[in-house]
């Protein structure tokens, strides 16, 4: 029997140097407690070598770049992957991110998906949408892209974050303003169809339990909100009520441990109806919605 016949018709191909290094990096990242070690090791390899993740096997052994181990060491120290590569993916967007701006998370994609469906279901030709605490601009840009006839407004307080927001929104039709979400857009009072926000919602008492990537690198302004984490959401409830037209909808992301608490903030005696919680892809309570009552 020939060697080719014995191996199923072709000789085994030698494993590339890069893939072998990725395997080692995966183990190092796993040992460091990185939540998705294989994905991150591959993303870093793709970033350093200028290829897509699915094309790592095409990198020739002679082209292996030793700088790979520099970025692996940074990730091993729990620097966010997105800070190292300079970009984050969100729905159909590729956003520029770095120090000073909150890195958008996958769980927020389901929040935006619900909002997009809600806006599309409205009998409004050019729906008006406001994104409070926009950060990188992920939510506002996704809505503008996926609901083409919408008029989208966004506000952000932090000058550091705005440096990134402006980069991401360059050439978009989102109207961006700097300011406090609690007093934003007085010129839109009573005219907005949907208000959406991914505000800070981590209780100050849980600081030590926050993942190093967020605690040490995301801006505190985007993470923490009072002793129970709900301080800003209570304020945003009044902002949303002021901005929305009767029948308009508010969508607010919250921590999975706050399920059941946030809908109570949007109470009937404060002018709301249909307040409810919704699960994320892992079936954990992730965001609350409510409708402004019609008189």
**Low-pLDDT residue spans:** 1-13
User: What is the average per-residue confidence, as pLDDT, rounded to a whole number?
Assistant: 89
Strand content: 15-25%
Q: Please bin the fraction of helical residues.
A: 25-40%
First-last Cα distance: 86 Å
Strands of the widest sheet, in order across it, are 5-4-3-6-7-9-8
Number of helical stretches of at least 4 residues: 11
- Radius of gyration, whole Å: 23 Å
SSE order in H/E notation? HHHHHEEHEHEHEEHHEHEE
Number of strands: 9
Q: What is the global morphology?
A: elongated
Biggest pleated sheet? 7 strands, mixed
Provide the structure class. Answer: alpha/beta
What does this structure look like?
It is a single chain. The chain has 295 residues and is of the alpha/beta class. The protein is built from 11 helices and 9 strands. The protein has helices spanning 3-6, 17-31, 37-49, 68-76, 81-85, 107-121, 138-146, 159-169, 212-215, 231-243, 262-265, and strands at residues 87-90, 93-96, 128-132, 151-156, 175-178, 192-197, 244-253, 272-279, 285-292. The strands form 2 sheets. It has a 7-stranded mixed sheet, with helices on both faces. Helix 2 packs across helix 3, helix 3 (37-49) runs antiparallel to helix 4 and helix 6 packs parallel to helix 7 (138-146). The longest helix has 15 residues, at 17-31. The chain is elongated. Residues 1-13 have low confidence and may be disordered.
């Amino acid at each position: 029997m020939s060697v080719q016949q014995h191996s199923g018709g072709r000789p085994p191909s030698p494993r590339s140097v890069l893939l072998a290094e990725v395997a080692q990096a995966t183990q190092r990242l796993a040992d460091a407690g990185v939540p998705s070690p294989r994905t991150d090791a591959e993303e870093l390899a793709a970033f350093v070598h200028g290829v897509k993740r699915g094309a790592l096997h095409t990198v020739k052994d002679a082209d292996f770049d030793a700088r790979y181990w520099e970025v692996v060491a940074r990730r091993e120290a729990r620097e966010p992957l997105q800070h190292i590569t300079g970009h984050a993916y969100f729905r159909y967007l590729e956003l520029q991110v770095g120090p000073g701006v909150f890195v958008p998370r996958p769980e927020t994609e389901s929040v935006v998906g619900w909002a997009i469906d809600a806006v599309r279901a409205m009998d409004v030709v050019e729906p008006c949408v406001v994104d409070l605490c926009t950060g990188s601009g992920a939510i506002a840009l996704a809505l503008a892209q996926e609901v083409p006839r919408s008029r989208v407004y966004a506000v952000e307080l932090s000058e550091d974050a705005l440096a990134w927001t402006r980069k991401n929104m360059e050439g978009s039709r989102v109207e961006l303003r700097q300011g406090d979400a609690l007093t934003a857009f007085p010129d839109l009072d009573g005219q907005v169809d949907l208000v959406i926000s991914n505000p800070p919602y981590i209780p100050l008492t849980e600081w030590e339990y926050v993942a190093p990537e967020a605690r040490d690198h995301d801006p505190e302004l985007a993470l923490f909100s009072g002793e129970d984490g709900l301080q800003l959401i209570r304020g945003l409830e009044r902002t949303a009520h002021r901005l929305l037209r009767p029948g308009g909808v508010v969508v607010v992301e919250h921590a999975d441990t706050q399920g059941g608490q946030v809908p109570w903030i949007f109470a009937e005696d404060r002018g709301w109806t249909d307040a409810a919680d919704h699960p994320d892809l892992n079936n954990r309570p992730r965001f609350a919605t409510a409708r402004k009552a019609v008189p």
